[in-house]
Amino acid sequence: MISPLLANLFLHYAFDAWLENTDGSVKYARYADDAIIHCKSKAHAEWVLKKVNERMQECGLELHKDKTKLVYCRDYRGKGNYPVIRFDFLGYTFQPRTSKSKRNGKLFLGYDCAISIRSKKRIVAKLRELEIPRLTHKSIVGVAQYLNPYIRGWVNYYGKFRGYEMNPIFQLLRLRLVFLARKRYKRYKYSVNNAYGWLDRVREQFPNLFYHWQIGLST
Description:
The protein is built from 7 helices and 5 strands; from the N terminus they run αββαβββααααα. It has helices spanning 2-22, 42-58, 117-130, 140-158, 167-184, 192-205, 211-214, and strands spanning 27-31, 34-38, 87-89, 92-100, 107-115. A hairpin with a 2-residue loop joins strand 3 and strand 4 (92-100). The two termini are 41 Å apart. 15% of the residues are buried.
């Protein structure tokens, strides 16, 4: 664990402290070797990028060519067209999104984040890896106890912003649980609808059984 610690310490002086001394007007966020820098204009962004590139070379580092880009954070105030208006950071995708005003309830174009497609694919891959239809727990309660740590972790991280974007993931989980019922109970083996009905009854009787049920992040 010492290498990530030393790398972060190095980048604090090579990037964080240097950037604050070079241009105190910018706001930035950095996690490990990923960072976003907020600039006032395209010209400002191009100047900052040039300086950052020079600084990295001074420190024996190199910017990632595919990940390094200028992004226009377009919202209702934005003017002009730019080729790149979205980016991914820490598992979220930031892009123009329709939002509702808290003041008057009207819709407007904002710039917001939600779970990224790549993050969704990773969770789907994990669901496949768990092989839910093959779980051998004696009851659905045991299945929930096994799955809830995963579900809670996903929701607590990715559900903070536009959590409803995770609903396709939980629809897939619902399907996996239906497959579990069809595999385990003979009366549901040949009836998908009856298996869905079984799961709906479980949710009605035990609404807090699965973590995402508790907070309404599923249909």
